[in-house]
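User: Show me an example of a complex going from sequences to structure tokens.

Assistant: Sure. Here are the input components:
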Amino acid sequence: MTNLIHMEFMQRAFLAGMMLAPLLATLGSFMTLRKMSFFADGIAHASLLGIALALICGATPFLGAIIVGVVFGLVVFFLERYARLASDAVVGVIFTAGMALGIILISLQPGYQPDLISFLFGNILSITWANIWTIFGVSVTILLTIFVFFRHFILIALNDDMAWTSGVNTKRLDALFYIMLSLTVVLGVKLLGVVLVSALLIIPSITAKIVAHSFYTYVSFASMCAFVAFVVGLIGSYYLDLPSGASIVMVAVGIFVMTFFGKVIISGKRVAV
Amino acid sequence: MHTTKIIEVKDVSFAYRDSDYVLRNISFGVEKGALVMLIGPNGSGKTTLLKILLGLLRPTQGTVLLFGEKPSEVRYKIGYVPQKLDFDRTFPITVREFLRFSDRKATEAAIDSVLESIGADKFKDKLLGALSGGQLQRVLIARALLSKPAILFLDEPVSGVDIGGEQNFYELIKKVKERYKVTIVMVSHEITVVNTMATHVICINKRMLCSGNPKSALSAKTIEALYGTDVSLHKHKC
């Protein structure tokens, strides 16, 4: 264990994960209540276009993914709100178009593309100090924004019209939520990859729903679940020589299964999630 | 004579798409302290008109003034109870939290008081998703009253309440009006309680059909224009 902590790549991995896991879970707590899981998945896949564009331009793939992720998030927001298109239809088009274009652009690049593989399946051990500072800056900004507008985001999640009559600027805050969620998803891609990132958004929040008796306990428990899944998953993956992203997700699934059956056994009732 | 019209709707029309009008040339005024029932058949544009009154939709033409200002400018004077709260029933939020988040200035004592006044204090620590339709409707009214609004808008408030509970619900609305001295505008497709409940009735079916005291405004001809020939009014003991 001491060896593990002394390795610099592991220090960076722990720092990134300990910031990102609670952030993903907090945003995921609102996202699952708003039934936006497909949106997160769509943004993660569409960010592949940003990676491809960055590779072509010689820019940092992480930065390309962030920019394209946020742009696609805002496109979905405007199409849903103003063109009155169905959310799943909009995300479905964006998701496939972004990913398809990304694959075409990458196929035009000569040779093996290690960045592509790392974005598809995540490679937390390849996180740089520059990535850490980006993750730190974005995480602190998003968590502070959520803290300031906490009650507004809850009311919007419950009912948009009711939130408006409670004095909430629903359009602006909704757009802000889409931007924050897109940013968080793309940061999470670095941790878990395009394919697995939605796991840390969804699993901790549905686990927390099983035991929560108030909104504060719900968000706190979801963050705690994500944190534990990350730490146990990363340490486990190191000692068992397993892929880190997949190990973190499997620990999160394990916590969910234990919580679910624990609740069923203790309460003797069906549990809704 | 000086009248205190707190809602003024002048020549309002609304279309979701070009020329596809849901409402045409709607005009009426509502005085302070009135209990207004906005009635009309399904698809008559009642909910659209309510959304315009709340400032959620902008009229295609015409003007709406609440207290002489645009609705969006006076949101703090408005309480709103939606027809139904379409939310994830596993949403982990208690009734008390819901009220606290709805009005950040509300004290615990104010929350207790408003819940007690509408008979919802028994379930203040329950999860919102665990409430029945009638209980949820009471909590939504409590939320709307918490900020001490001058006008309370209710969209089809009995739609989620069982038939036996409707009578109690109308009695509750009357009590709320007396206790909170609030002007009430209630959207309904239920015509049978208008005479006993309302001091003012507004009838629409995409266009204006009547506005005024129910006894004079609700003529047989108006009712026929609203619902067809087979409908007549019954008096409830309310």
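The lines above are the inputs; the final block is the predicted structure for all two components together. The CA atoms of residues 93 and 127 of chain B lie 6 Å apart.
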